[in-house]
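Lab notebook, bench 4. The sequencing result for the construct came back, and we need a structural model before the next group meeting so we can plan mutations. Quick request posted to the team channel:

Model the 3D structure of this chain.
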Amino acid sequence: MRMHMKVLMVEPLGFSGICYYTAGLCRTLQPLVEELTLLTASNYELNTSQEPYTVLPLLGGMNRNQAKLRRGFNALRNPLIMLDVIRANNPTIVHFQDSFIPLIEMWSVNLAHRLCAGVIYTVHDVERATLLGEPTVHSRLTALALHRIYHIANRLIVHSQNSADELQKRFTVDVSNIYQLPLGAPYIDNNSLPNRAEARASLNIPADCIVALFFGNLKKTKGLDYLLKALQRVVERLPNFLLLVAGPPRSENTTDYIGVTKSLGLEDYVRFDMRYIPYHEVPYYFIASDFVVLPYQKVYQSAVVVTAYAFGRPVVATRVDGLSEVVEDGRSGYLVDDSADVRSLADKIILMGLDQAKRNDMEHYVRELTLTRYSWTAIAKETKRIYSTLANE
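Done. Here's the predicted structure in token form:
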């Protein structure tokens, strides 16, 4: 007898990459289950009016217009809100998409485990503190909460072998409870996209520039300081080069990137848009660029890569952690062993910038990847299989 599969998806942030990932998964997963409900933040960024599943924007704590203390207080209610939703919907599976505050969401995961047939937790970042800088008392408490979450959940989903390895070694998770699924490419409505000329005009970028995009939150571990140093060599070979930096700095990252740019004499070659880029503006940045640069020092996996692929943009990235699993050197982009080697980083950027024919070949290849390896259809089917296996235990 077929089980009536009811899924509660919990995504507490309500904006940015994990929000978009969850929406893509829900859209393709919905036809495969009987009921699907998304519990998310009250300030949910996306338009819910046309989604084929129920969206409950009830969770607190992610309103960036509120003070941190107020946000934290609002987040304290989230486990009780989730408890009410579980009691009202009686889901078969509760699937958590990462966490906002692990010390709070640990209680949500624990409650779900007590009340439901199965709990699944997608680990987008195994230990976020390692991406933000030096360990602190708060980061150590967070690691303890994550350890508890990883051992309460029945199944963990990761996006790279690197993440799976770290879960086993650092958090002693049984390998049989870990499933690896790729990040899905973002949904793109090609009928509403600008062309390159329109995107560049919107961003006031000259048509003849070779544009590299650095996109996302500015964390210390993302290597933007090395990229800026590499540009001194790049602009000698590519005088029409422009680096477009789009994304807000993290609060713990005090590096003055604009000051660094000025000290290097690169003001004419770097454009900063240091704010959160809302969903409807994201396509303009990728379409206006020729390729994307990810000079990261540490990363578990990056939605920026699959987003670049979805827009037909190859990448220049470091051969580090999960990036080396999704960037095929010479096919979908170029890899550099270490972004601190600014000469090698510059040479790969120059190579990408000079060879238009190679970029065109890469563009065709990465678009094909989004329809195959990073297809939501395949990801949703495998996710449903994980649900069914767990529910039938």
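The domain at 190-371 is CATH 3.40.50.2000 (Rossmann fold).
Will bring this to the meeting.
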